[in-house]
User: Which sequence fits this backbone?
């Protein structure tokens, strides 16, 4: 009930903030209201707010469907709505392209932003194939319209679903397009998101560590320019950078960076799914440093957070549980490891398919446990 009330409060606060921003835009456009913005920038300010309204509408419709989104995930979704104050940023408005003049095309842009917001449900439920189809449909429309903010959002969402499906090279191409579109129009928030995601895909998924670190550094530029140094986005950037440091073998620097990220997450939103991700990655470095019991504690906290947000059967939660299974094996807890691996196998078979590389990893892991149990002849049926 407490979290549900927080969701309602977050939506109410956002609606009030957006309404005040819209009223301020109207006053600036009124010759009696003061100097205001130049006419063209005033129009772009209104258009910027209308795009945010579309995302707000899509989010509200999504949150009203209790079957599609857990309440805990709903809170983060509500908190992630774009800041209306950005639409008063003259530098942002000067770079923002004018929306299409045709009323029907403008209506379509509005509906496409709503559709992209609603795809959060597919990500949450692990329906990555359906989500990708929906995102591709919006991208096709966005390419026909040619409106940069919509193109950036659509490319980003397509890339996100491709990454979830293990198609990392193609995912990187789409997220790079999202970055390019956002950076050209000076959208620091979207460009920062894309840079962070490219750091993850290039550095972690594709093991191109130096490339990943460069994208993490580029993400910092956009965060600082956009005033986002004390945000979850910055915590996520630190987390990705810490992973790159680990991959390069600098465990001490990686642990320090992870600890900065986790402290920032706890200060901003303790218990948020973002903290679950941070603890998951922190545990991996502790494990590499030989601190297995500390790693296990971090993994258990991570799983508890992710399960509260996504559910036990979600692929993301399963990924964290699979890491715990491998750690249990290293600690000699073979029965616990086997039980966790079998659970993850079932989840990934249903959500990702048996051709996905993650499913293959579970087969290898189960085989290793069987060998350690002295049951190698049983295979991995």
Assistant:
């Amino acid at each position: 009930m407490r979290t549900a009330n927080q969701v309602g409060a977050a939506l109410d606060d956002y609606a009030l903030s957006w309404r005040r921003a819209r009223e301020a835009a109207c006053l600036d456009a009124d010759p009696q209201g003061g100097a205001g913005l130049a006419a063209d920038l005033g129009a772009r300010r209104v258009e910027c707010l209308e795009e945010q309204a579309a995302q707000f509408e899509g989010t509200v419709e999504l949150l009203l469907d209790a079957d599609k989104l857990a309440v805990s995930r709903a809170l983060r979704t509500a908190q992630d709505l774009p800041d209306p104050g950005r639409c008063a940023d003259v530098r942002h408005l000067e770079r923002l392209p004018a929306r299409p003049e045709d009323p029907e095309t403008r209506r379509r842009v509005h509906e496409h932003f709503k559709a992209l917001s609603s795809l959060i449900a597919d990500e949450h439920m692990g329906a990555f194939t359906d989500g990708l189809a929906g995102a591709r449909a919006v991208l096709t429309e966005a390419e026909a319209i040619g409106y940069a903010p919509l193109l950036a959002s659509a490319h980003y969402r397509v890339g996100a679903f491709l990454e979830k499906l293990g198609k990392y090279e193609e995912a990187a191409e789409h997220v790079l397009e999202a970055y390019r579109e956002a950076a050209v129009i000076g959208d620091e928030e979207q460009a920062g998101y894309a840079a962070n995601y490219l750091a993850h895909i290039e550095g972690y998924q594709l093991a191109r560590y130096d490339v990943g670190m460069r994208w993490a550094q580029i993400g910092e530029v956009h965060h600082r320019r956009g005033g986002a140094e004390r945000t979850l986005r910055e915590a996520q950037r630190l987390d990705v950078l810490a992973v790159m440091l680990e991959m390069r073998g600098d465990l001490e620097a990686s642990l320090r960076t992870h600890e900065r990220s986790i402290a920032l997450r706890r200060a901003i939103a303790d218990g948020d799914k973002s903290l679950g991700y941070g603890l998951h990655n922190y545990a991996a470095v502790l494990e590499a440093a030989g601190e297995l019991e500390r790693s296990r504690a971090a993994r258990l906290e991570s799983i508890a957070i992710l399960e509260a947000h996504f559910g036990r059967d979600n692929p993301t939660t399963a990924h964290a549980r699979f890491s715990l299974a491998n750690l249990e094996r290293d600690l000699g807890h073979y029965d616990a490891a086997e039980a966790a691996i079998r659970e993850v196998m079932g989840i990934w078979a249903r959500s990702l398919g048996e051709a996905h590389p993650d499913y293959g990893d579970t087969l290898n892991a189960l085989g290793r446990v069987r060998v350690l149990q002295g049951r190698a002849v049983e295979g991995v049926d």
In short: The domain at 230-304 is CATH 1.25.40 (Serine Threonine Protein Phosphatase 5, Tetratricopeptide repeat).
